[in-house]
Amino acid sequence: MGKILHLLFFILISNSIISSSxxxxxxxxxxxxxxYATCISLPVQNSHLHWNYHPxxxxxxxxxxxxxxxxxxxxxxxxxxxxxxxxxAQALVALVGSNGSVxxxxxxxxxxxxxxxxxxxxxxxxxxxxxxxxxxxxxYATLVLPGGGTNFNQVWQMGPVSxxxxxxxxxxxxxRNSVGTVDFVTGQAGAGGGVGGSLxxxxxxxxxxxxxxxxxxxPMGAMVARYLKVFKVAxxxxxxxxxxxxxTAYGIGVAGWGTGLKLGSDSEGIKYTxxxxxxxxLFALGTLQVFALLLRPKPDHKYRIYWNIYHAGxxxxxISLGITNVFKGLDILDPEKKWKHAYIGVxxxxxxxxxxxxxxxxxxxxxxxxxxxxxxxxxxxxxxSNGYGHGQNQAA
Length: 396
Ligand SMILES: *[C@@H]1O[C@H](CO)[C@@H](O)[C@H](O)[C@H]1NC(C)=O
Ligand SMILES: *[C@@H]1O[C@H](CO)[C@@H](O)[C@H](O)[C@H]1NC(C)=O
Fold this sequence. Notes:
Helix content: 40-55%
CATH topology of the largest domain: Four Helix Bundle (Hemerythrin (Met), subunit A)
Order of helices and strands: HEEEEEEEEEEHEHHHHHH
CATH architecture of the largest domain: Up-down Bundle
Number of strands: 11
Oligomer: single chain
Largest sheet: 6 strands, antiparallel
Bound molecules: 2-acetamido-2-deoxy-beta-D-glucopyranose
Structural class: alpha+beta
Number of helices: 8
């Protein structure tokens, strides 16, 4: 349990950790000694945005600084005025050639496969230049903010240069999470909130809800059903505990599923097909389990045994798919390694407990069989099979 709480705790606070890594944001000295009133460290890709906003003429002087850029790489920073993400981005692109020379231009991105061709933007850029200093690429620009607006969606990126032209960027989490909003007026105060934090926050929320529900509570609820009912004193309590845990897991799981659908519909152009399909299957199977409860034959009904097998079968399918999808989700979200390790730790603990209880259950079952034989009971079969054949003793 401690590990689960630890995992929850981390994911919930991870946003603030990421966005508070302001390190050298303010202390950086530009080669031209320019001083910028505001600086935010962007949440991914080691980038910083420095700026001065001029309310009198609605312009902003920016310096976009991307650290750790080698030769034959491009970096870009963009405002997306009418949308979000890559399509529609009004980008400033700096291309570092193989000899280290830096070429800078603007590009209005019209689609996913159109590349970063040179074109004019939907707003004026009276000043644009770039340099590369100690591996930092800095793009200096003055933007005439469109429509007098001050709050925009922004996106930034890095990719390879081949044959002097920008190539497609990687699709690592770093590359997919480099979107957010920027407010040129309140930026200074909002820096701690983390630009792009909202999407990251929603992804983390989605991850926590689903990891806890499908990935931890569901297996725990199944263990209650399988191992508690062997104890006579646990009748019929195990049944209600099982239902309570699974109902809670299902409730949280549906919330997590909803956040996943929303994330999917919001991230146009990015598809995690198998993660999505497994998620939809999980929701369907989980819902089936809820209805199965309502359609359950009476304990002494002759078909009850088949219902039990069906219910456990679907249950095990849900658990294996749930755990699989938590791992797929962890790979997509790509938090620090320790969170994957923590989840693996939780699973190993659950598995270890299950192995012990499994052994103990068989011990009890065999012992009871023996006692039944010695006492000459015909045996009502209540405990004859460890697992599903609990006929008369199962809570109705
Ligand atoms: C906008 O105003 C600022 C000062 O208010 C000035 O320094 C800057 O040159 C102006 N920019 C343009 C593009 O007119
Ligand atoms: C570096 O390469 C670019 C073309 O990629 C060329 O225009 C430029 O002259 C080169 N600079 C030097 C110093 O060789």
